[in-house]
Design goal:
The structure is a single chain. 68% of the residues lie in helices and 0% in strands. The chain is built from 25 helices and no strands. The N and C termini lie far apart (88 Å). Among the domains are: 267-322 and 340-393; 395-528, Serine Threonine Protein Phosphatase 5, Tetratricopeptide repeat, CATH 1.25.40.
Length: 528
């Protein structure tokens, strides 16, 4: 069986034996697992070591078989050949994962040595095969394996990957995948992070790698944010260079900004965060300004929408990245008043810039559904926060945005859903300012209901209106206290029409509203 794996040729082209051999060795590993289970660790018969040796040898032979052939061969492959090779590699990956439970360190050491050897010789397709095999092992590795892995990552792996212009795209792609597979290792060994992130920046220049590199960059920065604050200057410089790449699009820009912003979140003072966020907003404003100019020009509407959407998605990504980590400890019993830095202090200018960008872009592109939805997403990033921040806007900003939406606004149900989330996030807010804004929101929703006339005109909007009213009652039913009997009558008449209409969703929403009304002490006791 070992000789069969030495058959010349490539799977997908002229080697039909290797896939059959993989089936044999997969069954071999599975059978050994069952046999080993019958014996205690210190009472296994001598033949088990011979069996392990054969398994390790087979895995080494398969490492040769999963290597990508040179481009002059793969360029001539049809779709069927490519599929055959891809399936073969997946089968080998499954075999490696199963065999690791028996071979453990022996297998890991072997793949590290093979990978280091390929790296030292500059054999990039061999290196890709080694990285592929290590990625297959990643999930099963324990922290105790870190010392062995350090011998690989300390050998300038990612530095060489960043600098080598002749490295095949397949090798770079597998290296990008490796960053994701070994995130836990980098969390435990942060000294290896800078060259890894520099490599990801270099991968952003390649169209086939840009999206996955941007996602890996955002994820790694988010999880290792506290260890990377000293790298911010170099990341800002690399980001400016990245903006010149043709791959700098909506997804890649927003993901890279998300990664950098998550590091900014880890800075120790609001003043330091302020300065860095201003730098980021200056970058976002470039896309916003371009979108506004294109709209005025009138000849590049589609390109203008793309620029506007890029700016808004970058803001959303920044808002998400600035959210406090889930593991952060917040002392709810502390006597210290919440900071007003971002609402009334120097940071208020940051909030004003964000709101201004939203207002301009949603006004210029008010008929584009994606623009409206992304604007809502920006507001939503602040609703889950407990402590003040750049994207935790005063209630008035949310209410002003929602009040500016009409029945002609695209994605109006999404806007009303945003209003529901806003109200829920303020359910413990008893301040007069929130009370006032909730009333303004109620009046706008009642106006929408009046303009609808009947729930069947737009069932989705009707549901949204009913659910906003229900959230207002859940938050503070007393908000309805100052409304006139005529206004309340109109509101409840609309809910009755929802119950009577044939559409299921308005009927269900209105029924839930009436259940809430019937159990509300204020509404039951109110003479109105």
């Amino acid at each position: 069986m070992h000789e069969l794996l030495k058959y010349p040729g490539h799977v997908g082209e002229n080697d039909e034996i290797a896939p059959i051999a993989v089936d044999f060795w997969t069954n071999w590993v599975s059978t050994l697992e069952d046999e080993f289970f019958e014996y205690e660790e210190d009472k296994k018969p001598p033949w088990t070591e011979t069996a392990k040796t054969n398994t390790l040898l087979a895995v080494s032979e398969l490492w040769n078989k999963i290597r990508f052939p040179p481009p002059e061969i793969t360029d001539g492959w049809d779709s069927e050949a490519k599929k055959t090779f891809k399936v073969f590699r997946a089968d080998v990956r499954d075999l490696i994962q199963g065999a690791y439970e028996q071979l453990l360190d022996d297998m890991l050491n072997q793949f590290i040595l093979l990978t280091l050897g390929a790296l030292g010789r500059g054999q990039w397709l061999e290196l890709e095969a080694g990285l592929f095999c290590l990625n297959a092992l990643a999930e099963g590795l324990e922290p105790e394996a870190d010392e062995r892995l350090k011998s690989l990552f300390s050998f300038s792996l990612f530095s060489q990957m960043s600098e080598g212009p002749s490295i095949p795209a397949t090798t770079r792609r597998t290296a990008v995948d490796m960053v994701g597979f070994f995130t836990s290792f980098f969390l435990r060994n942060v000294e290896f992070l800078p060259p890894v992130l520099t490599f990801l920046f270099s991968a952003l220049a390649q169209p086939s790698l840009a999206n996955s590199a941007a996602k890996s960059f955002a994820s790694l920065c988010s999880q290792c944010r506290k260890s990377l604050t000293g790298e911010l200057d170099s990341f800002f410089q690399m980001y400016q260079q990245f903006l010149q790449y043709p791959t700098a699009d909506v997804l890649t820009k927003s993901k890279v900004l998300e990664g950098i912003t998550s590091i900014v979140e880890a800075l120790t003072s609001e003043e330091k965060k302020h300065a860095r966020i201003q730098q980021l907003l200056n970058v976002v404003a470039q896309d916003a300004d371009k979108a506004i100019l294109l709209a005025k020009d009138g000849h590049a509407a589609e390109e203008g929408v793309v620029s506007a959407l890029t700016a808004l998605q970058c803001l959303t990504s920044m808002g998400k990245a600035l959210q406090g980590p889930d593991e952060a400890v917040i002392d709810l019993e502390a006597d210290k008043s919440p900071s007003t830095y971002w609402t009334q202090g120097p940071g208020a200018v940051i909030q004003k810039q964000i709101i201004t960008l939203i207002e301009y872009l949603t006004k210029v592109y008010e008929t584009d559904s994606d623009i409206i939805e992304e604007a809502c997403s920006i507001f939503r990033t602040g609703y889950k926060e407990i402590i003040p921040g750049p994207f935790v806007f005063p209630p008035k900003e949310t209410v002003d945005f929602i009040s500016g939406c009409t029945l002609n606004t695209p994605r109006l149900p999404f806007v009303l859903e945003t209003a529901c989330i806003f109200l829920t996030s303020h359910k413990h807010d008893k301040s007069p300012s929130f009370y006032e804004q909730a009333q303004h929101l109620l009046h706008h929703v009642l106006k929408l209901m009046q303009q609808l006339g009947h729930p069947s005109t737009d069932p989705d909007v009707s549901v949204g209106c009913i659910e906003v009213i229900q959230r207002i009652i859940n938050t503070n039913a007393g908000i309805l206290k100052n409304e006139s009997p005529e206004v309340l009558q109109s509101m409840f008449n609309f809910s009755v029409e929802c119950v009577k209409c044939p559409d299921v969703l308005p009927k269900r929403a209105a029924s839930q509203l009436w259940v809430r009304v019937s159990t509300s002490h204020f509404l039951i006791s109110s003479p109105q």
